[in-house]
Q: What sequence folds into this?
């Protein structure tokens, strides 16, 4: 089993044991105006303010660590996250987290993950959401924490503050360099870990980035390249945002898809066995 799989499963086990029981967003030409455009860095800083309304969908793609996607709907207190890593057709790891108010559920599918034993319980095969309530907020599935919809989830706010140089092409396309040292990573910890940045040294202070905004100046995409260093592989990271103001909040899982206390215990026992093998 890979080190990444072991670390992710360890995080899941810790949480389980802790349990008791053009559209409007598409880019479009800006309306003609006599007002000058803001300088590129100021435009990027302003582009993330709409995220504070907590009503959007996002996707984070990482060539090294898979995809994280989410629906954020602050008005109803709902949040859904999914972390999916597909290394091959026979090595897929998929974990989802859903929160509605104070209720939480996780849906784990490691039945297609490499080196997993046969006969995994339904609660580890993507068939049962684990029971809501009493779930630890210390983290699950590697970097993804249990959390409420809130500001600073994805860390793009920190990324735009880390922009060192920026040029604009047209009204909505930007490029330049990014200093990742000291950047606030956001709740979901989606930017490279500190050890990777340390291994990069001064290179972490001038990483190439590209960004686009929509017709209202809201951030639409922010991507950057991270070279490999030491034990860390090179990575291409892309954050994209859409459905501003129109995100559809997730609903509670159907009762028949929510696991029992027995399903929870079966998941705990199976994960212990996997980690001890």
A:
């Amino acid at each position: 089993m890979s080190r990444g799989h072991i670390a992710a499963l360890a995080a899941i086990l810790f949480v389980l044991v802790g349990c008791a029981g053009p559209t409007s967003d598409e880019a479009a030409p800006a309306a003609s105006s006599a007002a000058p455009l803001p300088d590129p860095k100021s435009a990027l800083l302003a582009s993330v303010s709409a995220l504070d309304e907590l009503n959007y969908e996002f996707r984070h793609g990482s060539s090294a660590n898979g995809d994280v996607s989410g629906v954020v709907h602050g008005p109803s207190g709902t949040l859904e996250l999914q972390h999916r890593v597909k290394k091959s057709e026979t090595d897929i790891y998929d974990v989802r987290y859903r929160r509605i108010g104070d209720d939480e559920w996780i849906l784990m599918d490691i039945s297609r993950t490499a080196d997993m034993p046969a006969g995994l319980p339904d609660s580890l095969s993507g068939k049962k959401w684990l029971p809501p309530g009493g779930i630890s907020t210390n983290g699950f599935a590697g970097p993804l924490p249990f959390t409420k919809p809130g500001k600073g989830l994805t860390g793009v706010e920190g990324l735009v503050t880390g922009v060192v140089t920026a040029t604009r092409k047209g009204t909505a396309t930007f490029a330049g360099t990014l200093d990742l040292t000291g950047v606030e990573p956001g709740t979901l910890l989606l930017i490279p870990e500190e050890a990777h940045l340390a291994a990069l040294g001064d290179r972490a202070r001038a990483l190439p980035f590209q960004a686009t905004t929509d017709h209202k100046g809201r951030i639409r995409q922010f991507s950057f390249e991270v070279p490999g260093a030491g034990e860390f592989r090179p990575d291409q990271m892309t954050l994209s945002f859409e459905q501003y103001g129109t995100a559809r909040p997730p609903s509670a899982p159907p009762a028949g898809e929510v696991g029992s206390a027995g399903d929870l215990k079966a998941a705990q026992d199976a994960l212990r066995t996997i980690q001890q093998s």
